[in-house]
Request: fold
Amino acid sequence: MSEENYKLQNTNYKQITNIVSRLRRTLQLLKSDLTKVFAGVQGAVFSKSAPWPPEARLCNAFLRRGFVLFIVLLLVFCGTAAAETLDIDAYLALVKQNSKDLKLAKKELDMARVHKKEAAATALPKLMIEANYRRNLKDIYLFIDFPDFQTGEMTNQSFKINYKNEYGLTAVLNQTLFSFKVGTALRAAKQYGKLTGFAYKAADQAIITAAKKIFYQTLLLEKVWQVTEAAEKNAHENFLNMQKKFDNGQISQFKLLQAEVRRDNLTPETTKARRNYELVLNNLKNLAGIAVEKKIALNGSLENYPPLPAALELAFILDSRPDYNALLWEEKLRRTAVKAESAERYPSLDLNLIYNFSSLSDQFKFERQNKSYIVGLHLSFPVYTGGYRLAQIQKAKIERDKTRIKIEQSKERIYNQAENIRLRLQEAQKRILSGRKSLQTAKKAFEIAQISADNGLATQLELKDVRMLYDQATLNCYASVYDYLDAYFDWQQALGKVENK
Reply:
């Protein structure tokens, strides 16, 4: 280490030591003379001519320096707590993580797994065990008339027939040997699991599509706000320029008033654009489970858009649509329901294995034990139910037919939806190409009008009209790209090929 560096470090160390020492002395002074400080402050408050004591002035200076330090630290903290930036991938990840609609759909998947376990349980054996204990508080006697062996006369005799403690245990094992209901229940549980799987996928695609739309809608309204704000700023700068020229006698008061009216008319438009942006931003936060008070910034662009997709056959679209496949599995489930109701008319056969144990004792012991093993078959055959079973079968068939009609309706709707979305894509693409060309022309016209107005060769009304055309062309470009993206996201959902990005 060089001598100069050593001296510099030594000097810095001494300065720091002096500062710390002064702070310690100040704190000690505050602590020891706290009573004097408040007394002096009170005297200064109630007496305008009374000067503050030195301790109070020192406390006041110390507090002012501490307040300044607090403000500096607060500004530093606020500067570090910048708004979180989210791109489309990060936002969609938050939606998938926090969406309550998706959580509800996942609960349906859990319910499907429970139904499967429930159906499988009907085919497994069932074991029931029942134990009991009884305490007899009073003896019970049996009275019988017997003839006396010596005299031959009838005499009444009593016999104790119970014990103080009675123990019992019964175990029953039941196994279904034959039943149509077991097979249909297993089949229905499997079909329900398939149905809920496609339903969850359809819900996931719908939510992701809505999230994409609201993300780019927020970008669009942010652009609208920025363009409107830039127009207001340009109008304000133009007004200041016109005011200088008016003060120098270069323009008339009429032109100055035109510039002022143009600026004032843009102020409510900027306020409205900002309100619309903040409203859709709150909806965007709500969909992703983000706190409304949290500041976020979106990282995205409305400059680029994907190419126009090719037309596809209806059969290919139907195979990849999760909502359509959910309807197909619903129709299978309805057919199984018809079979399940019909199975109620057929007999069922169960096997029962029964074990009984009993014990009687005046002590807490297992004495005088009895054990029995029983094997039995139980046959149940519904002969007549008053037409109830037939009505249930008819209801199941009606539900099956309704689902089949829904499938035909879904085919027509999907086909029309795909055609309409493709027309929207083509129309939006044409508007994008036309809008970008118009934007170049409007931008060039505004630059010429701006120079002409500065040189007094164009009126404020002409400048206002050209600026409005330029702003409108800018917004039309952004809006056409958003409309294309909106239709493109609908196209992905119509194909059942929604991407999580």
About this structure: The longest strand covers residues 165-178.
